[in-house]
Target: Sugar ABC transporter permease
Amino acid sequence: MPQHSSLRDGAQPAQRLRTQTAIGAAATDPDRREARIAWLLALPAITLLVLFILLPTAAVIVLGFTDFELGYGSFRFVGFENYAELFSDRTFRRSLWNTTIYTAIVTPVSIVLALAIAMLIEAETKGRAFFRTVYFLPVASLLVAMATVWQFLFHPTIGPINTFLAVFGIAGPNWLGASGTVLYGLSIIGIWQSVGFNMVLFLAGLTAIPRELYAAAEVDGAKTWFDRFRLVTWPMLGPTTLFVTTISIINSVKVFETVKTLTEGGPNKASEVLLFTIYQEGFVYLRVGYASAMTVVFLAILVVLMFLQYRVLDRKVHYA
Model:
């Protein structure tokens, strides 16, 4: 009897272990099933990501180390020769500088104007939907189609802009035909195109600010609109402003349509920007390897800009 009792006592822990293992396996089955379903649902998006983003990006990186030209049946790997040529290329340096100037003008001006317009629309109850639609129209319109309108507006002799300046005795410049003003003319178009989209984002951010914060600020002594803006609106718009700044920089660096349609990079390469230079090298001169090296540098610039921006601005953002 003592022997049978000891056997039963020894079997109980083993039985409990098997039971716990079975329960654990049964509990993990639904988790595994959910994981499989999640992967199946994500598979189409992953496939598209690989086919249209990752593989083309990898191909561009590889081609950047070759002398591949369209129309030639063979090519060879040239190492970093394309990159060495790139940084000694005056056209590339000029396009990089033009892109920097364009971005430095369009990004801050479009953000400030969009915020000001959004605050005016938010403060006005009547006609809010109308003004929101009017300011958003440039985003919905085709920039290539609007190029004809801008050519007329910037015309040096019959254009409304120079006609308006002449009323005040100011001689209007040749906005798109002179090296000294072409970038400013293109920047005006870029601001016009960006303000509407940025305004909608700021309107969404303003709507999300609790009204109680303004009442509390008034109790604490915020009597003027500037005090309310400084103490409540601006801090609460931090995440929105960070996102708007990111999108504005990306869109400014990617400027291409207005340059291709209105100036073709002229006069004397005064409006040639990075994407237009890449287009010229790849699709006009057919130097795909060299254009790919330019594209890699362009992508690297975007990544560095976004990294620096988030490192600097994200620390100052208040997330509600």
Remarks:
- The CA atoms of residues 217 and 228 lie 7 Å apart.
- The mean pLDDT is 86.
- The chain has one domain: 89-316.
- The chain has 13 helices and no strands.
